[in-house]
Amino acid sequence: MKYLRLLFKNLLRNKRRTFLTMSSIAVSLFLIATLQTLLHALTNPPETPDSALRLVVRHRISLFNTLPAAYRQKIEKVPGVESVVGSMWYGAIYKDPSNFFANFSVNTDQFFQVYPDLKMPEDQKEAFVKDRMGAIAGKNLADRFGWKVGDRFFLKSNTWPIDGVEVTLRGIYEGGSDDASSFYFHWDYWNELMKQQYGEWDQTGTFSVRVQSADDVGRVAEQIDTLFRNSNSPTKTETEKAFVLSFVSMLGDVQTFITSIISVVVFAIILIAANTMAMSIRERSREIGVLKAIGFRSRQVLGLLIGESVALALGGALIGTLAARLIYHALPLAQMTSGFVQSLDVTAGIILSCSGIGAVVGLVSAGLPAWQASRKPVVEALRRVV
Amino acid sequence: MKIPVRYNVRSLLVRRTGTLMTALGIGLTVGIVVVMLAMVRGLDMTFIETGDPQNLVVIRKGSANEVNSYFSRALFETVRFLPGVARSSTDEPEAAGEILVVVNHKRKDGSDSNVIVRGTSEMGFRLRPDVRIVEGRNFRAGLRELIVSRALEHRFADLGVGQSVEIDNVDWRIVGTFVTSGGAYDSEIWTGYQDVAQVWRRPIYSAILLRAESLDDAQELIKRISDDQRVQLDALHQDKYYADQTFASSIGLKVLASLIAVIMAIGSCFAVMNMMYGAVSSRQQEVATLRALGFRKRSILASFLVESAVLALIGGAVGCLLGSLFNGYSAGTANLASFSEVVFNFRVTPDILLLGMVFALFMGLVGGLLPARRASKVRLIDVLRQ
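Predict the joint structure of the above. Result:
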């Protein structure tokens, strides 16, 4: 501890170099924190106690195959099932086709039993269920497009052969396992438009099933799939989390890609930091000789130099990751990325792991030059002119 | 009077280790940017290079792509016999009605993805002359036989010639592997139109690919089909149709690439600054001597900028070299327009390498500016007094 003062004095002796090194480490760790957060968000969809009780039933071949709406009644009869909601991707276009957002037509009668985690005033819930042309949106989505309760708009579809739906926003919800970023309206309304087009329809995309207890999840999923195994539309039932993750897995090599970038960036900052430490240690070789001449041991000198480097890198890492946290909280990310990124939450865990990376960078980068300097005989160190 | 560049090169050589580390740091930054650009380019080119402007893709109005499109068989007959559609030597209209379904399948690494199965006909092959069978033979219609693109066979499990896959309770036998000249069809499975229509019980078409007699006829046909309110179809040039698909697949990667490039560039600028400040301070006497010899401040500023630029360009060259190693690297991700796998190759093109070098030069100049200014301000009297 008594060496701490010396350590900091050394850091402050060349303020500009310390500032520059720290900045480049901070900027790099800012990037690493960003990538880690992105990766974390991709692989760990937000979970609520309610989402753990939800199953998603889809067509076994792929999401592009629809299921008969009548399956709903059959699924309801499976023991352990509490309530079922059919939902269908609508493919809404709001103003610009590149405004991507999640939007579904759903059965509204049991909607809030299956999704109790969507927090919304009771009168808004009621208004939504009652109005066949009503709709609700998550708060983040509503903020992104500037929607208010009572707004009416016309939404075309890029998926279905209908002109579009005209809906009134009846409520704005918070919470949910979708980061309050989805849009829901009545399946009945959409189904009727489809019937006008095709004569008959009554199809839906997936069923969200709420089960009574978490212990039932596996059994209920199996029973549902058995029920439809030999029908024209066999099903695949999985937990909501697995369902969301199956979308992520479609992105394929993106995960590998992000991980590789993180490793290359780490390697690059080690180079930068090592270069600085080497420069600063070389300049100080005479001083190190003096320290040893007045009785400092090699080990102490080594500790001092490495401590200095670790403090520098750790400081940079903390600045970078904390800046990432503050900046991503303040920015309207969903708006800036047309909905591809809803939010980036730099968690305490990520700050910790980035600090770890910072410490390792400090340790590794100072290692060789510090070891060489600490081992140098006093006479030689003193003789050398900078 | 100019200071010769040789002076700078020698100076860099004297500080070999530092030069090497900084150059490698810049090299990694440039390398990452080159690889990311090569990836985005590869993904874009996969779509852009598909198709011929004289061919038209006809899909249902309002659907963004073939996967979301479907229309009755009668419409195919209407479109096929429109004037302007090319005729073969046997006076058959050169138009292929096709059906597309998306099938969930596992990659070799066990992750889930979607694959497009295209039901086509003899005419479909004639309109896409670059599709060649390289292993096995072509499918025979009605026998539930499949041919698989080589790229998909490499990425997905159980898609080799001789294997069978079960889709919708029917066993399909893989009888051939095909290659294309590297377009969007490289990520598909092909079979007969009737096979798909029967197994999926969908007596519909998803899309029509047709050849116009000339480019003018193509224009004429587009107007005629798209303006006809009764058919509710859209016709697009085949190349334009695929070019339109690029946005959805690569926008996320583009945003990520630019973010990483900007952040890494800032970090690298700091590193260059650090290195150059070090150079300036350790060469104060040299600079003073140059001034005493009669070199002007401007020359010294220019000289240090040149040195920093040379350093950065060495890094840039290293980065381009590293990046080039990834040329042809094959990866896969989801086409977010159809949620199905698209396999593509990284492409390192001359313009990307040029951009990498310009990027390096930019970092060198920005990072070198302040240190060079400082060098030019070294006062003769201060140095001589030391």
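The radius of gyration of chain A is 30 Å.
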